[in-house]
From TrEMBL:
One of its GO terms (molecular function) is 5S rRNA binding. The keyword GTP-binding does not apply. It comes from the Eukaryota. The lineage of its organism: Eukaryota, Metazoa, Ecdysozoa, Arthropoda, Chelicerata. This is Large ribosomal subunit protein uL18m. InterPro entries: Ribosomal_uL18_bac/plant/anim, Ribosomal_uS11_sf. It comes from Amblyomma aureolatum.
């Protein structure tokens, strides 16, 4: 590490090194995690599994919910605590004006694309898909799930080291 052409690199570097200028330059011994989802993203958070007889199962961090009403369709992501994280609906003005009908398959795909975009912007990359027993029960639900996959969202949560089913 030389400074200028005068040589004396180590001696010049020692002269430039100054101790901490203020208390803010020192590394603190305490760390406060301000991101509550950090442990979930690192797969270290505990999944609240509930009890064996609970229906539906609550062994997820984020769950995808699809609701089809008579006048509009909506999709949302719910945290295991029950809080709504992200939502998109065909009743929103920006989505509705692009659609011919607010309740058909194209509306389900459009709502899924909007919801997938919002999920990725919020940092939600994977979530549990609605339990359909292997196949989607309706064409709208299938279009919704396909739209979420095309949007870049994984519809299965990553494995957690705390899952007892995987360990046995």
């Amino acid at each position: 590490c030389t400074v200028g052409r005068g040589g004396g690199g180590v001696a010049a570097a020692r002269r430039l090194h100054i101790g901490p200028l203020s208390e803010n330059d020192r590394v603190s011994n305490e760390f406060t995690n301000r991101n509550p989802r950090n442990l979930e993203q690192m797969l270290l958070a505990h999944k609240h599994g509930g009890f064996e007889l609970d229906k539906p199962s609550r062994s997820y961090w984020h769950k995808l919910v699809f609701e089809a009403g008579r006048k509009h369709l909506s999709g949302s992501v719910v945290h295991a605590d029950g809080h709504l994280v992200v939502r998109a609906s065909s009743s929103e003005w920006g989505v509705r004006r692009q659609l011919v009908s607010a309740t058909d398959r194209s509306a389900a795909a459009a709502v899924a694309r909007v919801l997938a975009r919002r999920c990725l912007e919020a940092g939600l990359l994977c979530m549990q898909a609605p339990n359909t027993g292997g196949e989607a029960s309706s064409l709208r639900l299938q279009a919704f799930l396909d739209g979420m996959k095309e949007g870049g969202v994984l519809l299965s949560e990553s494995w957690s080291p705390h899952d007892s089913e995987r360990l046995s």
